[in-house]
Amino acid sequence: MSATRQPQVTVLAGPTAVGKGTVSTYIRDNYPDVWLSVSATTREPRPGEQDGVHYYFTDRDEFQRLADTGQMLEWAVVHGRNCYGTIRSKVEEAAEAGKHVLLEIDLQGARQVKASMPEAKFVFLAPPTWEELVRRLTGRGTETPEEQQRRLETAKLELAAESEFDVTIVNDDVERAADELVGLMGLVPHQR
Ligand code: 5GP
């Protein structure tokens, strides 16, 4: 790859509850030219989630096998519970085919990609304010107070990692943030 060529792999990470999933879902639904990586996970599918579309749902043994045989570009235990990982061959094939590859992963995973693929572009999705992040985290209402507290502690550490990234996008509005991201990826954002 020449030094001037646009990197084909973009990594989107950021603190818990900042809205990475919402931004990447918006991109999947509105920007077919973006190749959004489908991760493997050991967590159970949520209602409406399809295997191979939202995740590759695997059991722990299969996940472990993929990790042990070097088939994961990165992987991590997220929120101390389930394993999530990016399947290396799929990302490499898409990048080699010239696709605009987007990985939406957690911070631990982003650090691993940086170690093995430093030419990728690393984008940090930030909340407009800390108060807004707290509101999004607690407003979801799906976690116990203890779990929320644990996630807030994690979020503080995650926010401190912003300087490790090439660029920050503030998630003040999902469509706007998504458009900014696809613009950074070298695509033309939609007119509004
Ligand atoms: P959820 O279970 O809500 O779909 O995702 C939980 C977290 O897992 C999110 O923060 C998401 O960024 C992260 N995640 C999803 N896929 C991957 C992956 O392949 N690798 C890593 N490291 N994190 C992931």
Automatic annotation (TrEMBL):
Keywords (alphabetical) are:
ATP-binding, Cytoplasm, Kinase, Nucleotide-binding, Transferase
| SUPFAM superfamilies xrefs | P-loop containing nucleoside triphosphate hydrolases
Catalytic activity line of the entry: GMP + ATP = GDP + ADP
Enumerate the InterPro entries for this protein.
GK/Ca_channel_bsu, Guanylate_kin-like_dom, Guanylate_kinase, Guanylate_kinase_CS, P-loop_NTPase
Is Cytoplasm one of the keywords UniProt gives this record?
yes
Q: Which Gene3D superfamilies match?
A: Guanylate Kinase phosphate binding domain (3.30.63.10), P-loop containing nucleotide triphosphate hydrolases (3.40.50.300)
Report the EC code(s) recorded for this entry.
2.7.4.8
Q: What role does this protein play? A: Essential for recycling GMP and indirectly, cGMP.
Q: Which family does it belong to?
A: Belongs to the guanylate kinase family.
The molecule here is called: Guanylate kinase
Question: Which organism does this sequence originate in?
Answer: Zhihengliuella salsuginis
Q: What is the lineage of its organism?
A: Bacteria, Bacillati, Actinomycetota, Actinomycetes, Micrococcales
The gene that this protein is the product of is gmk
